[in-house]
From TrEMBL:
A Pfam family recorded for this sequence: UPF0004
Matching SUPFAM superfamilies: Radical SAM enzymes
Gene3D superfamilies attached to this UniProt entry: Methylthiotransferase, N-terminal domain, tm_1862 like domain
Lineage: Archaea, Methanobacteriati, Methanobacteriota, Stenosarchaea group, Methanomicrobia
TRAM domain sequence ranges: 369-430
Enzyme Commission number(s): 2.8.4.5
Keywords attached to this entry: 4Fe-4S, Iron, Iron-sulfur, Metal-binding, S-adenosyl-L-methionine, Transferase, tRNA processing
Species in which this protein is naturally found: Methanococcoides methylutens
Cofactor binding note: Binds 1 or 2 [4Fe-4S] cluster. One cluster is coordinated with 3 cysteines and an exchangeable S-adenosyl-L-methionine.
GO molecular function ontology, one term from the record: tRNA (N(6)-L-threonylcarbamoyladenosine(37)-C(2))-methylthiotransferase activity
Transmembrane segments: none
Protein name: tRNA-t(6)A37 methylthiotransferase
Similarity comment: Belongs to the methylthiotransferase family. CDKAL1 subfamily.
Domain MTTase N-terminal: 1-110
Residue ranges constituting the Radical SAM core domain according to the UniProt record: 137-368
Amino acid sequence: MKVHVLTYGCSANQASSEIMIASVRGLGHELVDEKDADVVVINTCTVKYATEQKILFKIEDLGHKGVDVVVTGCMPQVQLEAILEKNPDAHILGVNSIAKIGKVLNVIDDSRNGGSRERVQLLSTEPEGFLKTAHSRFNPNIHICQISQGCDYSCAYCIVTIARGKLRSFDADSIVEDVRMAVSEGCREIWLTSQDNGQYGTDRDVLLPELLRRIVAIPGNFKVRVGMMNPFSVTPIIDDLIEVFRSDKIYKILHLPIQSASDDVLKRMNRFHSIEETNVIIARFKEVFPELTIFTDIIVGFPGETDEDFDRTLEWVKEIRPDKVNISRYTPRPLTKALEYRNIDSRIVVNRSNKLHLLCDEVKLGSKQKMVGWKGEVFVSMDAKVKGVMARTASYKPVVIPEGSVQPGSSCNVEIYDTTSGYFLARLID
Protein backbone atom coordinates (compact mmCIF):
# COMPACT_ATOMS: atom_id res chain seq x y z
CA MET A 1 0.00 0.00 0.00
CA LYS A 2 0.91 3.65 -0.27
CA VAL A 3 1.32 5.08 3.23
CA HIS A 4 1.91 8.55 4.63
CA VAL A 5 2.85 9.28 8.26
CA LEU A 6 1.80 12.71 9.53
CA THR A 7 3.42 13.92 12.75
CA TYR A 8 2.29 16.58 15.22
CA GLY A 9 3.80 17.62 18.54
CA CYS A 10 6.89 16.85 20.54
CA SER A 11 10.20 15.11 19.86
CA ALA A 12 8.84 11.95 21.52
CA ASN A 13 6.16 11.87 18.83
CA GLN A 14 8.82 12.45 16.19
CA ALA A 15 10.77 9.45 17.50
CA SER A 16 7.61 7.31 17.43
CA SER A 17 6.98 8.31 13.82
CA GLU A 18 10.54 7.39 12.86
CA ILE A 19 9.97 3.93 14.35
CA MET A 20 6.62 3.49 12.61
CA ILE A 21 8.01 4.64 9.26
CA ALA A 22 10.78 2.04 9.56
CA SER A 23 8.12 -0.61 10.27
CA VAL A 24 6.06 0.50 7.26
CA ARG A 25 9.09 0.21 4.99
CA GLY A 26 10.08 -3.12 6.53
CA LEU A 27 6.66 -4.54 5.64
CA GLY A 28 7.16 -3.58 2.00
CA HIS A 29 4.74 -0.66 1.85
CA GLU A 30 5.62 2.55 0.01
CA LEU A 31 6.04 5.89 1.82
CA VAL A 32 4.39 8.64 -0.23
CA ASP A 33 3.11 12.20 0.03
CA GLU A 34 -0.26 12.59 1.72
CA LYS A 35 -2.08 13.35 -1.54
CA ASP A 36 -1.03 9.98 -2.99
CA ALA A 37 -1.67 7.83 0.07
CA ASP A 38 -4.04 4.89 0.52
CA VAL A 39 -3.40 5.04 4.28
CA VAL A 40 -2.52 8.05 6.44
CA VAL A 41 -1.11 7.45 9.91
CA ILE A 42 -1.75 10.55 12.05
CA ASN A 43 0.54 10.83 15.09
CA THR A 44 -1.45 13.28 17.19
CA CYS A 45 -0.81 15.95 19.81
CA THR A 46 -3.48 17.39 22.09
CA VAL A 47 -1.53 19.94 24.13
CA LYS A 48 -3.23 22.87 22.39
CA TYR A 49 -6.84 23.35 21.31
CA ALA A 50 -5.88 24.77 17.90
CA THR A 51 -3.74 21.72 17.09
CA GLU A 52 -6.48 19.36 18.25
CA GLN A 53 -9.03 21.05 15.97
CA LYS A 54 -6.66 20.92 12.99
CA ILE A 55 -6.15 17.19 13.56
CA LEU A 56 -9.87 16.45 13.95
CA PHE A 57 -10.56 18.24 10.65
CA LYS A 58 -7.83 16.19 8.97
CA ILE A 59 -9.26 12.92 10.34
CA GLU A 60 -12.72 13.80 9.03
CA ASP A 61 -11.53 15.12 5.67
CA LEU A 62 -9.43 12.04 4.87
CA GLY A 63 -12.38 9.81 5.76
CA HIS A 64 -14.60 11.65 3.29
CA LYS A 65 -11.92 11.10 0.62
CA GLY A 66 -11.96 7.33 1.18
CA VAL A 67 -8.49 7.20 2.69
CA ASP A 68 -7.88 4.72 5.50
CA VAL A 69 -6.86 6.60 8.64
CA VAL A 70 -4.80 5.30 11.57
CA VAL A 71 -4.83 7.63 14.58
CA THR A 72 -2.06 7.32 17.16
CA GLY A 73 -0.29 9.61 19.64
CA CYS A 74 -1.95 11.23 22.66
CA MET A 75 -5.44 11.94 21.32
CA PRO A 76 -6.76 8.34 21.19
CA GLN A 77 -6.00 7.98 24.90
CA VAL A 78 -8.15 10.94 25.98
CA GLN A 79 -10.37 11.96 23.05
CA LEU A 80 -11.40 8.68 21.44
CA GLU A 81 -15.07 9.69 21.15
CA ALA A 82 -14.19 12.92 19.37
CA ILE A 83 -12.03 11.00 16.86
CA LEU A 84 -14.70 8.41 16.09
CA GLU A 85 -17.36 11.10 15.83
CA LYS A 86 -15.36 12.68 13.01
CA ASN A 87 -14.46 9.35 11.38
CA PRO A 88 -16.22 6.19 12.66
CA ASP A 89 -13.94 4.04 10.47
CA ALA A 90 -10.68 5.39 11.90
CA HIS A 91 -8.27 2.75 13.19
CA ILE A 92 -6.85 3.44 16.65
CA LEU A 93 -3.28 2.76 17.75
CA GLY A 94 -2.58 3.81 21.34
CA VAL A 95 0.44 5.91 22.31
CA ASN A 96 2.08 2.85 23.88
CA SER A 97 1.37 0.53 20.94
CA ILE A 98 3.40 1.94 18.06
CA ALA A 99 5.20 -1.41 17.64
CA LYS A 100 1.88 -2.86 16.45
CA ILE A 101 1.51 -0.59 13.42
CA GLY A 102 2.16 -3.63 11.21
CA LYS A 103 -0.87 -5.44 12.62
CA VAL A 104 -3.11 -2.49 11.76
CA LEU A 105 -1.70 -2.19 8.24
CA ASN A 106 -2.15 -5.93 7.65
CA VAL A 107 -5.86 -5.64 8.48
CA ILE A 108 -6.25 -2.63 6.17
CA ASP A 109 -4.35 -4.39 3.38
CA ASP A 110 -6.55 -7.46 3.74
CA SER A 111 -9.74 -5.41 3.57
CA ARG A 112 -8.50 -3.58 0.47
CA ASN A 113 -7.95 -6.95 -1.17
CA GLY A 114 -11.45 -8.26 -0.59
CA GLY A 115 -11.28 -9.20 3.09
CA SER A 116 -13.85 -8.20 5.68
CA ARG A 117 -13.95 -4.55 6.71
CA GLU A 118 -12.71 -4.42 10.29
CA ARG A 119 -11.84 -1.43 12.46
CA VAL A 120 -8.75 -2.03 14.60
CA GLN A 121 -8.39 -0.52 18.07
CA LEU A 122 -5.22 -1.28 20.02
CA LEU A 123 -4.79 0.50 23.35
CA SER A 124 -2.14 -0.71 25.78
CA THR A 125 -1.25 0.54 29.24
CA GLU A 126 2.41 -0.49 28.97
CA PRO A 127 4.82 1.02 26.41
CA GLU A 128 6.66 -1.33 24.08
CA GLY A 129 8.89 -1.09 21.03
CA PHE A 130 10.58 2.26 21.77
CA LEU A 131 14.20 1.13 22.12
CA LYS A 132 16.73 -0.95 20.18
CA THR A 133 14.58 -0.86 17.07
CA ALA A 134 14.96 0.48 13.53
CA HIS A 135 14.41 4.20 12.89
CA SER A 136 13.82 5.93 9.58
CA ARG A 137 15.25 9.22 10.84
CA PHE A 138 14.04 12.57 9.56
CA ASN A 139 17.66 13.67 9.98
CA PRO A 140 20.18 10.83 9.57
CA ASN A 141 22.63 12.54 11.95
CA ILE A 142 20.18 12.88 14.86
CA HIS A 143 18.87 10.02 16.99
CA ILE A 144 15.93 10.75 19.28
CA CYS A 145 15.90 8.38 22.23
CA GLN A 146 12.80 8.34 24.42
CA ILE A 147 13.89 7.40 27.94
CA SER A 148 10.51 7.15 29.69
CA GLN A 149 6.78 7.40 29.23
CA GLY A 150 4.40 9.38 31.40
CA CYS A 151 4.70 11.67 34.42
CA ASP A 152 4.08 11.35 38.15
CA TYR A 153 2.81 14.93 38.55
CA SER A 154 -0.56 16.48 37.67
CA CYS A 155 -0.20 20.07 36.54
CA ALA A 156 -3.68 21.57 36.40
CA TYR A 157 -3.50 22.47 32.69
CA CYS A 158 -1.77 19.31 31.40
CA ILE A 159 -3.63 16.65 29.43
CA VAL A 160 -0.44 14.79 28.46
CA THR A 161 -0.08 13.20 31.90
CA ILE A 162 -3.61 11.85 31.53
CA ALA A 163 -2.88 10.59 28.01
CA ARG A 164 0.46 8.94 28.77
CA GLY A 165 -0.17 7.86 32.36
CA LYS A 166 2.14 7.54 35.33
CA LEU A 167 5.92 7.50 34.90
CA ARG A 168 7.45 4.33 33.46
CA SER A 169 11.21 4.79 33.09
CA PHE A 170 12.72 2.54 30.43
CA ASP A 171 15.48 0.09 31.30
CA ALA A 172 18.85 1.88 31.54
CA ASP A 173 20.76 -0.94 29.83
CA SER A 174 18.34 -0.82 26.89
CA ILE A 175 18.69 2.96 26.62
CA VAL A 176 22.49 2.74 26.59
CA GLU A 177 22.38 0.01 23.95
CA ASP A 178 19.91 2.06 21.89
CA VAL A 179 22.31 5.02 21.91
CA ARG A 180 25.27 2.74 21.16
CA MET A 181 23.44 1.38 18.09
CA ALA A 182 22.63 4.90 16.88
CA VAL A 183 26.26 6.04 17.22
CA SER A 184 27.43 2.96 15.31
CA GLU A 185 24.95 3.89 12.56
CA GLY A 186 26.59 7.31 12.20
CA CYS A 187 24.39 9.53 14.37
CA ARG A 188 26.30 12.50 15.75
CA GLU A 189 23.62 14.01 18.00
CA ILE A 190 21.62 12.09 20.58
CA TRP A 191 18.44 13.78 21.83
CA LEU A 192 17.11 12.37 25.10
CA THR A 193 13.40 12.98 25.35
CA SER A 194 10.40 12.24 27.55
CA GLN A 195 7.63 14.18 29.26
CA ASP A 196 10.17 15.21 31.93
CA ASN A 197 13.74 13.89 31.72
CA GLY A 198 14.45 14.95 35.29
CA GLN A 199 12.03 12.35 36.62
CA TYR A 200 13.90 9.51 34.92
CA GLY A 201 14.54 6.58 37.22
CA THR A 202 12.57 7.81 40.24
CA ASP A 203 10.51 4.64 39.73
CA ARG A 204 13.68 2.54 39.26
CA ASP A 205 17.19 2.34 40.71
CA VAL A 206 19.12 4.44 38.14
CA LEU A 207 18.52 8.20 38.13
CA LEU A 208 19.21 10.60 35.24
CA PRO A 209 22.79 11.60 36.23
CA GLU A 210 23.89 7.96 36.33
CA LEU A 211 22.16 7.25 33.01
CA LEU A 212 24.03 10.20 31.47
CA ARG A 213 27.34 8.95 32.87
CA ARG A 214 26.76 5.63 31.18
CA ILE A 215 25.78 7.24 27.89
CA VAL A 216 28.79 9.57 27.65
CA ALA A 217 31.06 6.58 28.35
CA ILE A 218 30.01 5.08 25.00
CA PRO A 219 32.96 5.32 22.57
CA GLY A 220 32.53 7.64 19.60
CA ASN A 221 32.39 11.25 18.57
CA PHE A 222 28.88 12.41 19.42
CA LYS A 223 27.01 14.97 21.52
CA VAL A 224 24.02 14.58 23.84
CA ARG A 225 21.16 17.05 24.13
CA VAL A 226 19.23 16.55 27.36
CA GLY A 227 15.62 17.55 26.77
CA MET A 228 13.08 19.25 28.99
CA MET A 229 13.32 18.90 32.77
CA ASN A 230 10.88 20.46 35.23
CA PRO A 231 12.43 22.55 38.02
CA PHE A 232 10.87 20.34 40.71
CA SER A 233 12.50 17.25 39.21
CA VAL A 234 15.93 18.89 38.84
CA THR A 235 16.26 20.14 42.43
CA PRO A 236 16.73 16.69 44.06
CA ILE A 237 19.48 15.68 41.59
CA ILE A 238 21.12 19.04 40.89
CA ASP A 239 24.58 18.32 42.33
CA ASP A 240 25.04 15.06 40.40
CA LEU A 241 23.46 16.59 37.28
CA ILE A 242 25.86 19.53 37.19
CA GLU A 243 28.77 17.17 37.67
CA VAL A 244 27.85 14.94 34.72
CA PHE A 245 27.10 18.01 32.57
CA ARG A 246 30.83 18.77 32.75
CA SER A 247 31.32 16.05 30.11
CA ASP A 248 32.38 17.44 26.74
CA LYS A 249 29.77 15.16 25.18
CA ILE A 250 26.82 16.94 26.81
CA TYR A 251 25.55 20.23 25.38
CA LYS A 252 25.32 22.96 28.00
CA ILE A 253 21.63 23.65 27.47
CA LEU A 254 18.95 23.71 30.13
CA HIS A 255 15.32 23.41 29.01
CA LEU A 256 13.56 24.41 32.20
CA PRO A 257 9.87 25.36 31.81
CA ILE A 258 8.75 27.96 34.37
CA GLN A 259 5.19 28.41 32.93
CA SER A 260 4.86 31.58 35.07
CA ALA A 261 7.10 33.70 37.29
CA SER A 262 4.28 34.27 39.78
CA ASP A 263 4.18 31.86 42.71
CA ASP A 264 0.43 32.46 43.03
CA VAL A 265 -0.12 31.28 39.44
CA LEU A 266 2.26 28.34 39.94
CA LYS A 267 0.18 27.20 42.91
CA ARG A 268 -3.03 27.35 40.86
CA MET A 269 -1.25 25.43 38.11
CA ASN A 270 -0.35 22.75 40.69
CA ARG A 271 3.31 23.16 39.85
CA PHE A 272 5.67 21.83 42.51
CA HIS A 273 8.24 24.62 42.42
CA SER A 274 8.58 28.30 43.20
CA ILE A 275 10.18 30.81 40.87
CA GLU A 276 12.99 31.26 43.43
CA GLU A 277 13.78 27.53 43.27
CA THR A 278 13.97 27.83 39.49
CA ASN A 279 16.30 30.82 39.74
CA VAL A 280 18.59 28.86 42.08
CA ILE A 281 18.86 26.04 39.53
CA ILE A 282 19.77 28.48 36.76
CA ALA A 283 22.30 30.29 38.96
CA ARG A 284 23.93 27.01 40.00
CA PHE A 285 24.31 25.89 36.37
CA LYS A 286 25.54 29.30 35.17
CA GLU A 287 28.15 29.37 37.91
CA VAL A 288 29.74 26.29 36.36
CA PHE A 289 28.74 26.89 32.72
CA PRO A 290 28.78 30.68 32.08
CA GLU A 291 27.70 30.30 28.42
CA LEU A 292 24.72 28.11 29.36
CA THR A 293 21.80 28.24 26.92
CA ILE A 294 18.40 28.50 28.59
CA PHE A 295 15.11 27.39 27.02
CA THR A 296 11.84 27.81 28.88
CA ASP A 297 8.08 27.50 28.39
CA ILE A 298 5.53 30.08 29.53
CA ILE A 299 1.74 29.86 29.56
CA VAL A 300 0.05 33.24 29.18
CA GLY A 301 -3.42 33.92 30.54
CA PHE A 302 -3.83 31.00 32.90
CA PRO A 303 -7.10 31.38 34.86
CA GLY A 304 -6.65 33.87 37.68
CA GLU A 305 -3.49 35.45 36.26
CA THR A 306 -3.57 39.13 37.22
CA ASP A 307 -1.72 42.04 35.63
CA GLU A 308 0.71 41.87 38.56
CA ASP A 309 1.28 38.15 37.97
CA PHE A 310 2.01 38.77 34.30
CA ASP A 311 4.34 41.67 35.12
CA ARG A 312 6.38 39.30 37.30
CA THR A 313 6.84 37.06 34.26
CA LEU A 314 7.96 40.01 32.13
CA GLU A 315 10.46 41.04 34.79
CA TRP A 316 11.78 37.48 35.03
CA VAL A 317 12.43 37.40 31.27
CA LYS A 318 14.26 40.74 31.48
CA GLU A 319 16.39 39.47 34.37
CA ILE A 320 17.18 35.90 33.27
CA ARG A 321 17.23 36.62 29.51
CA PRO A 322 16.42 33.10 28.27
CA ASP A 323 17.67 32.24 24.79
CA LYS A 324 14.36 30.75 23.69
CA VAL A 325 10.85 30.97 25.12
CA ASN A 326 8.01 28.73 23.95
CA ILE A 327 4.93 30.90 24.55
CA SER A 328 1.46 29.34 24.74
CA ARG A 329 -1.85 31.11 25.21
CA TYR A 330 -3.79 29.11 27.77
CA THR A 331 -6.66 27.06 26.39
CA PRO A 332 -8.68 24.66 28.56
CA ARG A 333 -8.06 20.98 27.89
CA PRO A 334 -10.50 18.12 28.51
CA LEU A 335 -10.19 16.11 31.75
CA THR A 336 -7.80 18.60 33.39
CA LYS A 337 -8.28 20.33 36.75
CA ALA A 338 -8.05 23.80 35.17
CA LEU A 339 -11.16 23.04 33.11
CA GLU A 340 -13.10 23.95 36.27
CA TYR A 341 -11.55 27.42 36.46
CA ARG A 342 -12.98 30.62 35.04
CA ASN A 343 -11.07 31.74 31.93
CA ILE A 344 -9.61 35.19 31.41
CA ASP A 345 -11.04 37.41 28.66
CA SER A 346 -9.40 36.24 25.41
CA ARG A 347 -8.56 39.83 24.42
CA ILE A 348 -6.43 40.17 27.55
CA VAL A 349 -4.69 36.86 26.80
CA VAL A 350 -3.89 37.95 23.24
CA ASN A 351 -2.55 41.31 24.44
CA ARG A 352 -0.31 39.66 27.05
CA SER A 353 0.93 37.12 24.53
CA ASN A 354 1.85 39.82 22.05
CA LYS A 355 3.65 41.82 24.74
CA LEU A 356 5.66 38.78 25.87
CA HIS A 357 6.56 37.88 22.28
CA LEU A 358 7.92 41.38 21.66
CA LEU A 359 10.00 41.27 24.83
CA CYS A 360 11.39 37.82 24.07
CA ASP A 361 12.32 38.88 20.53
CA GLU A 362 14.12 41.91 21.96
CA VAL A 363 16.03 39.77 24.48
CA LYS A 364 16.91 37.20 21.83
CA LEU A 365 18.19 39.86 19.42
CA GLY A 366 20.37 41.42 22.10
CA SER A 367 21.86 38.06 23.05
CA LYS A 368 22.55 37.20 19.41
CA GLN A 369 24.31 40.47 18.70
CA LYS A 370 26.64 39.89 21.66
CA MET A 371 27.78 36.63 20.03
CA VAL A 372 29.10 38.37 16.89
CA GLY A 373 32.89 38.20 17.09
CA TRP A 374 32.84 35.09 19.29
CA LYS A 375 35.65 32.62 18.64
CA GLY A 376 35.74 29.04 19.79
CA GLU A 377 35.28 25.37 19.04
CA VAL A 378 32.09 24.02 17.52
CA PHE A 379 30.86 20.50 16.83
CA VAL A 380 29.67 19.84 13.26
CA SER A 381 26.40 17.94 13.47
CA MET A 382 24.93 17.89 9.94
CA ASP A 383 24.91 19.38 6.47
CA ALA A 384 23.17 22.75 6.32
CA LYS A 385 19.92 23.04 4.36
CA VAL A 386 21.30 25.42 1.74
CA LYS A 387 25.09 25.49 1.83
CA GLY A 388 27.87 24.35 4.11
CA VAL A 389 27.38 22.63 7.45
CA MET A 390 25.41 23.19 10.64
CA ALA A 391 27.48 23.17 13.81
CA ARG A 392 26.78 23.77 17.50
CA THR A 393 28.72 25.56 20.18
CA ALA A 394 29.23 23.71 23.47
CA SER A 395 26.06 25.46 24.68
CA TYR A 396 24.06 24.29 21.61
CA LYS A 397 23.93 27.61 19.80
CA PRO A 398 23.43 26.95 16.04
CA VAL A 399 26.26 28.00 13.73
CA VAL A 400 26.27 27.65 9.95
CA ILE A 401 29.68 27.46 8.27
CA PRO A 402 28.99 28.24 4.58
CA GLU A 403 32.57 27.73 3.34
CA GLY A 404 35.25 25.13 4.04
CA SER A 405 35.59 21.37 4.10
CA VAL A 406 34.48 20.01 7.47
CA GLN A 407 32.48 16.86 7.99
CA PRO A 408 29.64 16.01 10.41
CA GLY A 409 31.08 14.46 13.55
CA SER A 410 34.19 16.64 13.54
CA SER A 411 35.13 19.67 15.61
CA CYS A 412 36.67 22.91 14.35
CA ASN A 413 37.44 26.47 15.46
CA VAL A 414 35.33 29.30 14.07
CA GLU A 415 34.66 33.00 14.36
CA ILE A 416 31.04 34.19 14.26
CA TYR A 417 30.74 37.14 11.88
CA ASP A 418 26.97 37.59 11.49
CA THR A 419 23.60 36.42 12.77
CA THR A 420 20.22 35.62 11.26
CA SER A 421 16.90 35.08 13.03
CA GLY A 422 17.60 31.36 13.33
CA TYR A 423 21.37 30.84 13.48
CA PHE A 424 24.83 32.40 13.44
CA LEU A 425 27.19 32.57 10.46
CA ALA A 426 30.84 31.70 11.02
CA ARG A 427 34.13 31.29 9.21
CA LEU A 428 36.80 28.68 9.90
CA ILE A 429 39.89 29.85 11.76
CA ASP A 430 43.09 28.09 12.79
